[in-house]
Automatic annotation (TrEMBL):
Its EC number is 3.1.3.16. One of its GO terms (cellular component) is membrane. It catalyses: O-phospho-L-threonyl-[protein] + H2O = L-threonyl-[protein] + phosphate; O-phospho-L-seryl-[protein] + H2O = L-seryl-[protein] + phosphate. The gene is PHLPP2. This is PH domain leucine-rich repeat-containing protein phosphatase 2.
Length: 1287
């Protein structure tokens, strides 16, 4: 934010003492003297430029205290012009106040006349009433967004970033941002009036729309300007002054401005443009979204105005240009006053007898006056989005009324006034509160043909007599609660929409029926009588039908039949024999066989995916008796998800076939489709193909060939060259040497795939941080912007940082997840005003609440992105889809707030989602508050799938889990999901992320579990890392931010080890070390944090006076219990007494390190000493190293060991056999043993008295088990090494 300075003191404020010189901070904010003074008022404090310690203390005393940022008028102009998102130093003030402080008191303290409120960066700003309380408005706004904690609401209200969603202005923001309407502009000399009494002055002159705007250069953006309407006026040349024009308005009180130009070119350009404006005879005036409370006075002199658009303003009644004066528009025919929050119907509008169109939607009306019957010429009346419950009887006088909109009101029944309005042919009452469908009322309206009762509460239907209705032709009953529907009395019904009800049985009349849409119900029977001879389209998908209705088989004109997602076991022969059927959708049923065709049929699209087909009839594609191919006109064929082994060779007869989708079968022989002249798309992925027979020439139309997932398919170079002209060829790549991703984390790994489909840009971004919050958790996210790519990228870059901040403030997963979404919503700034994005965030962290679980998974989402957990092979949905179609509660909330839901189920025609990040201009209908769920992770949890809307629209949860549960590579699994979605017809952006989980107890390395040691790979976060890992900037291509640096220098390791040996235990013996060392914990079972960190002794720590890097050690004093020689080699021994447990270990480790015998395991006493190399201890090699390479190198064995509390690393097996390694310790000539070893006879190895005999026995056994030396080394002499066990 730019520099902010305090404005002039309020009228009741005593003058402040002189301030000390202000210090500057980054960002240009001045740090003022922190003195807080009362403004003389009980509620309002003096405005400040920023918070000081006293201000903060004052705020902490009461959560009802806070601050309000007051912007200047030019701030809106600068923001709208995208030149600056902040105000200048003189146009932003900070006012401390309470929730009880009224706007009038703030105005008095600021020297303002009034305050204006602007929401979501819109151009519309509302003037606050003197009694309104600005801080309470802010608190209510934040509470509706989702903030619950009063303290947090107080903090958020003080954040200046909130200005992108809510602002207060001391002056009305000007509308200079309508740059598209500005024709000409410049700074010229101007004189007002026809006489020479006024002097020439330099002014800013703008020709905007149909007006000439003149203002001073200094105050050009503060709203202080003169507007001269030019329509009907004059533009004349001033002869007594060169290059000068006189602009005059029309009317009795015409004004004139003389403008002098500098050049002839400017003079001619202005004259030409202004002459066009003057010659216009304006009939339509659009003043929508202008924050008007009254219309400009000059409009009343324009007698030609026939249409006036004042939508989305704040028009008042009793003002000079208010609604009560609109009767002056004698020729006005159309008036739009929607979204003005009038509250009550302006009665004087009923005196404008010329009106034919009146729009009063979304104004909060509860009733209509009887005078509305005076508008006898009215033809269209729109009253949507109000609170009406009845209509006056006088409305029946409007005999010319042909369109009446009363959707999204509070009607509980169809108004009887419809019976008098004989010109109306539609009853449009969507989104009301009707619970009973009374057909008797409709029978009394012979003029009504269309009935729209969408999104009501219809549960039952009432019909008192059997008299039929011969008038209604179209009925829309979508999104209600009907269980049974009998419309057989509507004998003229042509089209019925009844999707998303709870219908079990449906009965209709077939006399006139043409289209029937009954998807997403529970239908088991659909009865239509007589047979609908005119039926062309029948959609019955997602029901419980076990067979295709008989009457559908007899329909002679049916062209489209969709019975997918039902319980069908067979397809009737009569359906496949239909001579009119062109599109048949029978996917996702239980069909086992297809009937054999006899005659030629005109079928163009056949979809039988995901059934139980094992073979296709051999004669399916052969020729019929009339010598025509049975499916000669077939263009698209989908056979996916069956059990087919072959496709009949007669498919080559389908000359018009351009799309064949047959993935996820058992096809081993490539079908003969490459000879088809129009073939374009072929998908044979996930089959058992072994070879491809290629014709001499491929069709030029072939664009897409998918052969992925055929593990036995090998393509020769000649074949690949033949396919080179294909636009998209998908084949399995040879597996590349993969890095050991588990070096970063043994508990989870992820893979991401994103595909743009047929769109030009990818509007999906993903977030993946495998090591989050210093390596103790992970964060994964998916963001879908639908049509914009800006917001997903912003969320990808910022949301992890916001989560990290919120986790540090609260341990409650519901709180910090909710705050993460709400703060991210605020941080979107201006980009989030008009754009929105679905967001999904998954956070894995150690579970401190459930001691039986190692980690917990917290999932939060808004929009349509979803996460599914695979637990014991079964899908477990963790998200909630916030859409009008799938969430009735959210749909009801939006309806209660009087949003207009269009017929395609979108809020205000924009989006079907009810919760998004961004889209602040749709507040309060669209909110950012997320759905949050937490679940403890168990050993049964195998993987986590994150996907956007397009993925889950084409894949069920079960199918997605089954498709990837046996895939080893998470990246391959994610790609497979995206490929499946595209194979099912997805043409939109699709994204999938698969996270493999391994959070069982086999990863535990705690001593509390009896040394349950992991396999050869340890958790990277348990290594000795000085600096916590920091995620890098997310990649622009994949959106993954998961690279970390975890290295420690050699000197750091040596100094840390040396301090452990010499500083902490210089007076403590071996037995004391045994007693004082605490239990060692792993990441699954972290030790409760204490206030003081204390390093504990490790199993074995070696250091030398000089390490490999040449730095001297600080450990010069000998300590008790340490073997010392000439090179000052120090050894500290810490014997662990614990029970060993036989584990599954890597063969590599079994070969490199000795394993204690079974007798030693049985005794439970195991000893060992681990050497540490100064070059390698505590250093994590780069992740890109190959695992096998790391295992072969002894210097990197610490990577596969256990991290001890002092930072040293002990190999997994060596921790079970300390003494065996100790016998070999002096032989080592590298690392800490690089110094020359000079053995002294008095060197001793100290062992406790009670363990002396057992140590001798083990050493003897070790000496006997050593291999014999080679013959080449017989002549070599070697000094005997002696370990004295004197006590």
């Amino acid at each position: 934010m730019g520099e902010v300075e305090p404005g002039p003191a309020g009228p009741l404020e005593p003058p402040e003492p002189p301030e000390a010189p202000a210090s500057r901070r980054p960002g240009g904010i001045r740090v003022l003297k922190r003195t807080m003074k009362r403004n003389g008022s009980r509620h309002c404090l003096n405005r400040r430029s920023r918070f000081g310690s006293r201000e903060r203390d004052w705020l902490r005393e009461d959560v009802k205290r806070g601050c309000v940022y007051l912007y200047g008028a030019d701030t809106a102009t600068a923001t709208a012009a995208s030149t600056s998102a902040t105000a200048s130093s003189s146009d932003l003030h900070l006012v401390l106040c309470t929730v009880d402080t009224p706007a009038s008191e703030i105005c008095a303290g600021e020297g303002r006349e009034r305050l204006y409120l602007q929401l979501h960066g819109d151009l519309v700003s509302r003037r606050l009433e003197p009694t309104e309380r600005p801080l309470q408005i802010v608190y209510d706004y934040l509470s509706r967004l989702g903030f619950d904690d009063p303290v947090r609401i107080q903090e958020e209200a003080a954040n200046p970033d909130l200005g992108c969603m809510l602002r207060f202005y001391g002056e009305k923001p000007c509308q200079m941002d309508h740059l598209d309407r500005i024709l000409l502009s410049g700074i010229y000399n101007v004189r007002k009036g026809k006489t020479q009494l006024h002097k020439w002055a330099e002014r800013l002159v703008v020709l905007c729309g149909t007006c000439l705007i003149v203002s001073s250069v200094k105050d050009c953006q503060t709203g202080k300007m003169h507007i001269l309407p030019l329509v009907g006026g004059k533009v004349e040349e001033v002869k007594r002054r060169q290059y000068c024009l006189a602009f005059s308005s029309a009317g009795a009180q015409a004004q004139t401005y003389h403008v002098s130009f500098e050049t002839l070119a400017e003079y001619q350009r202005w004259q030409r443009q202004s002459s066009k404006v003057v010659s216009q005879r304006i009939s339509t005036v659009d003043l929508s979204c202008h924050s008007l409370e009254e219309v400009p006075e000059h409009l009343f002199y324009s007698q030609d105005i026939t249409y006036l658009n004042l939508r989305h303003n704040f028009m008042q009644l009793e003002r000079p240009g208010g609604l009560d004066t609109f009767y002056k528009f004698s020729q006005l025919k159309g008036l739009n006053l929607s979204h003005n929050k009038l509250g009550s119907f302006p009665v004087l509008l009923c005196e404008i007898s010329t009106l034919t169109e009146l729009n009063l939607s979304c104004n909060g009306f509860h009733d209509l006056p009887s005078q509305i019957g005076n508008l006898l010429n009215l033809q269209t009346l729109c009253l949507d989005g109000n609170f009406l419950t009845t209509l006056p009887e006088e409305l029946g006088n409007l005999q010319q009324l042909s369109s009446l909109g009363i959707s999204f009101n509070n009607f509980s029944q169809i108004p009887k006034v419809y019976e008098k309005l004989t010109m109306l042919d539609k009853v449009v009452m969507a989104g009301n509160q009707l619970e009973v469908l009374n057909l008797e009322v409709l029978n009394c309206m012979s003029h009504v043909k269309h009935v729209d009762l969408r999104m009501n509460h219809l549960k039952t239907m009432v019909i008192e007599n059997l008299e039929g209705n011969k008038y209604i032709t179209h009925m829309d009953l979508r999104d209600n609660q009907l269980t049974d529907l009998d419309l057989s009395s509507l004998c003229s019904l042509e089209q019925l929409h009844c999707e998303r009800n709870q219908l079990r049985e449906l009965t209709l009349s077939g006399f006139s029926l043409r289209t029937l849409y009954a998807n997403s119900n529970r239908l088991t029977a659909v009865n239509v009588y007589p047979v609908p001879s005119l039926l062309t389209s029948l959609e019955l998908s997602r029901n419980l039908l076990e067979c295709v209705p008989d009457w559908a088989c007899e329909a002679k004109k049916i062209e489209i039949l969709d019975v997918s997602y039902n319980l069908l076991t067979e397809i009737p022969m009569r359906i496949l024999s239909s001579l009119s059927l062109r599109k048949l959708m029978v996917g996702h049923n239980h069909v086992q066989n297809l009937p054999a065709l006899v005659e030629h049929i005109p079928l163009e699209v056949l979809d039988i995916q995901h059934n139980l087909l094992t073979r296709l009839p051999d004669t399916l594609f052969s020729k019929a008796l009339n010598k025509l191919n049975k499916l000669e006109q077939l263009e698209e064929l989908n056979l996916s998800g069956n059990k087919l082994k072959t496709i009949p060779t007669t498919i080559a007869n389908c000359k018009r076939l351009h799309t064949l989708v047959a993935h996820s079968n058992h096809i081993s022989i490539f079908p003969e489709i490459l000879q088809l002249p129009q073939i374009q798309f072929v998908d044979l992925s996930c089959n058992d193909l072994t070879e491809i027979l290629i014709p001499e020439s491929l069709p030029a139309t072939l664009q897409d060939l998918d052969l992925t997932g055929n593990t036995n398919l090998v393509l020769e170079h000649k074949t690949l060259d033949t396919f080179s002209h294909i636009t998209t060829l998908k084949i399995d790549q040879k597996p590349l040497p993969t890095t050991d991703s588990t070096v970063t984390s043994t508990f989870w790994s992820h893979g991401l795939a994103e595909m743009a489909g047929q769109r030009n840009k990818l509007c999906i971004s993903a977030l993946a941080v495998d090591n989050f919050a210093e390596g103790v958790g992970a964060v994964y996210g998916m963001f879908d912007g639908d049509r914009n790519e800006e917001l997903p990228r912003l969320l990808q870059c910022t949301m992890a940082d916001v989560l990290l901040e919120e986790v540090q403030q609260s341990t409650n997963d519901t709180v910090f997840m909710a705050h993460t979404f709400l703060v991210s919503h605020r941080k979107l700034g201006m980009a989030g005003q008009k754009l929105g994005s679905s967001a999904l965030l998954c956070y894995i962290r150690p579970d401190t609440a459930d001691p039986t679980s190692s980690f917990s998974l917290t999932v939060a989402n808004v929009g349509t992105c979803q996460a599914v957990l695979c637990r014991s092979g079964k899908p477990l949905p963790l998200s909630k889809v916030f859409s009008l179609e799938q969430d009735p509660e959210e749909a009801q909330r939006v309806k209660d707030q009087k949003a207009i839901i269009t017929e395609d189920n979108k809020v205000n025609g924009v989006t079907c989602c009810t919760r998004l990040l961004g889209c602040t201009y749709l507040y309060p209908w669209i909110l950012p508050k997320p759905h949050i769920s937490s679940t403890p992770l168990t050993i049964q949890d195998e993987l986590l799938i994150l996907g956007n809307k397009a993925l889950w629209e084409h894949l069920s949860y079960t199918e997605a889990v089954n498709a990837v549960c046996h895939v080893q590579d998470p990246l391959a699994a994610a790609k497979k999901l995206c490929t499946l979605a595209q194979s099912y017809g997805c043409q939109d952006n699709v994204g999938a992320m698969v996270v493999y989980l391994n959070v069982g107890e086999e990863g535990c390395t705690c001593e509390m579990n009896g040394l349950t040691l992991p396999g050869p790979v340890g958790f990277a976060s348990t290594a000795a890392i000085k600096d916590p890992p920091k995620p890098t900037t997310p990649s622009s291509s994949s959106g993954i931010a998961s690279e970390f640096s975890s290295e420690m220098s050699t000197s750091e390791v040596s100094s840390e080890v040396g301090s452990t040996a010499s500083d902490e235990h210089n007076t403590v013996g071996l037995d004391a070390a045994l007693l004082s060392r605490p239990e060692r914990r792993c990441s699954l079972h972290p030790t409760p944090t204490s206030g003081v960190f204390q390093r504990q002794p490790s199993c074995a720590t070696f250091s030398s006076n000089q390490s490999d890097n040449g730095l001297d050690s600080d450990d010069d004093q000998p300590v008790e219990g340490v073997m010392t020689n000439g090179s000052k080699v120090e050894v500290e021994v810490d014997i662990h007494c614990c029970r060993g447990r036989q584990l599954e270990n890597s063969p590599t480790l079994r070969e490199n390190f000795p394993i204690p015998c079974l007798e030693e395991r049985a005794r439970g006493l195991v000893f060992g000493i681990r050497r540490q190399n100064s070059v390698n201890s505590g250093i994590l090699l780069p992740v890109s190293k190959d695992k096998t390479e790391l295992q072969k190198s002894p210097s990197t064995s610490c990577l596969y060991g256990k991290k001890l509390s002092n930072g040293s690393i002990v190999p997994l097996e060596d921790s079970l056999n300390l003494i065996e390694v100790a016998t070999e310790a002096p032989r080592k000539k590298t690392g800490y043993f690089a110094a020359p070893a000079q053995l002294e006879p008095e060197d001793q190895f100290v062992v406790p008295r009670d363990l002396e005999e057992e140590v001798k026995e083990q050493m003897k056994h070790h000496q006997e088990s050593r291999p014999e030396p080679d013959s080449s080394e017989e002549g070599r002499t070697e000094l005997a090494e002696e370990f004295d066990t004197a006590l």
